[in-house]
Amino acid sequence: MYVVVNAAMSADGKLASRRRKQLAISGPDDFDRVDQLRADSDAVMVGVGTVLADDPSLTVKDEARNAERRDRGLAENPARVVADSRIRTPPDAAVLDDAAETYLLTSEAAPTDFIEQMEEAGAYVLAAGEDRVDLKTALAKLEGEGVDRLMVEGGGELIFGLFEAGLVDELRVYVGAKVLGGRDAPTLADGDGFVESFPELTLESVEQVDDGVLLTWTVQNS
Ligand SMILES: NC(=O)C1=CN([C@@H]2O[C@H](COP(=O)(O)OP(=O)(O)OC[C@H]3O[C@@H](n4cnc5c(N)ncnc54)[C@H](OP(=O)(O)O)[C@@H]3O)[C@@H](O)[C@H]2O)C=CC1
Ligand SMILES: Nc1nc(O)c(N)c(N[C@@H]2O[C@H](COP(=O)(O)O)[C@@H](O)[C@H]2O)n1
């Protein structure tokens, strides 16, 4: 599986303000680039923190791209994936609508009645890990479901978890022309943070998009 993390951050490294609600950092050209990246992916993943904060749909917005996927014999939209150890995803979340397939990655700690509720809502529930989603095992299970190219949109807790597990192949960061500040505002990689051994990145390209910059890095996983 090839894992691309794509996120937009402010010039000071924040994914959103301290209110932790969806905030447009990308401009129109960058949102269009993200739409193409979604269309080129088998699945689009977020953490449950993003579902609770943003209620995203994670679908491809450009109808020409939906049609192009259909022509390739694919579903109109890539699958959606949510890392959600104990099932905090609300039953009426947009990611559970019928626009695309949805996988919920959970742990053994997920209550049985919540699992049933999610399955009734049409989601595929994949358990990996005791208390928290074991991302390595979960992504291997997803690969078994045919997900070869996974796009991860965030947020910072999940992105850190994926780096910590050595699962990220490519990082695309859009740096937008905003300063958000706030010590409690989410950053590109939160979690516990690294203190000794840090993921090594190789810069592949730098491109101006809208009034910001798109940085593309590959990750040196051992
Ligand atoms: N600008 C941008 O491009 C983007 C911005 N955002 C913003 O980010 C914020 C949300 O980010 P954040 O709060 O960090 O939430 P995340 O979306 O990163 O979700 C974090 C949650 O994922 C669950 N999870 C399950 N397994 C793991 C694991 N192994 N490692 C890490 N997390 C795991 C945890 O909940 P549990 O333990 O219950 O499973 C955790 O609390 C919002 O403000 C949103 O608007 C989000 C995406 C993109
Ligand atoms: N690429 C990008 N730029 C921004 O400025 C953003 N705020 C985000 N947010 C991500 O997009 C999700 C919303 O998707 P839908 O429009 O609902 O399909 C949001 O949840 C973040 O993951 N991304």
TrEMBL record:
GO molecular function per UniProt: oxidoreductase activity
Catalytic activity line of the entry: 2,5-diamino-6-(1-D-ribitylamino)pyrimidin-4(3H)-one 5'-phosphate + NADP(+) = 2,5-diamino-6-(1-D-ribosylamino)pyrimidin-4(3H)-one 5'-phosphate + NADPH + H(+); 2,5-diamino-6-(1-D-ribitylamino)pyrimidin-4(3H)-one 5'-phosphate + NAD(+) = 2,5-diamino-6-(1-D-ribosylamino)pyrimidin-4(3H)-one 5'-phosphate + NADH + H(+)
Domain Bacterial bifunctional deaminase-reductase C-terminal span(s) in chain numbering: 2-215
SUPFAM superfamilies the UniProt entry points to: Dihydrofolate reductase-like (SSF53597)
Stretches of the chain forming a coiled coil according to its record: none
Protein's UniProt keywords contain Oxidoreductase: yes
InterPro entries: DHFR-like_dom_sf, Rib_reduct_arc, RibD_C, RibDG_C, Riboflavin_Biosynth_HTPR
Pathway: Cofactor biosynthesis; riboflavin biosynthesis
Keywords from the UniProt entry: NADP, Oxidoreductase, Riboflavin biosynthesis
Database matches in Pfam families: RibD_C
EC number(s) per entry: 1.1.1.302
Keyword Nucleotide-binding: no
Family, per entry: Belongs to the HTP reductase family.
Assembly, per entry: Homodimer.
NCBIfam families in UniProt: rib_reduct_arch, ribD_Cterm
Protein name: 2,5-diamino-6-(ribosylamino)-4(3H)-pyrimidinone 5'-phosphate reductase
Species: Haloarcula saliterrae
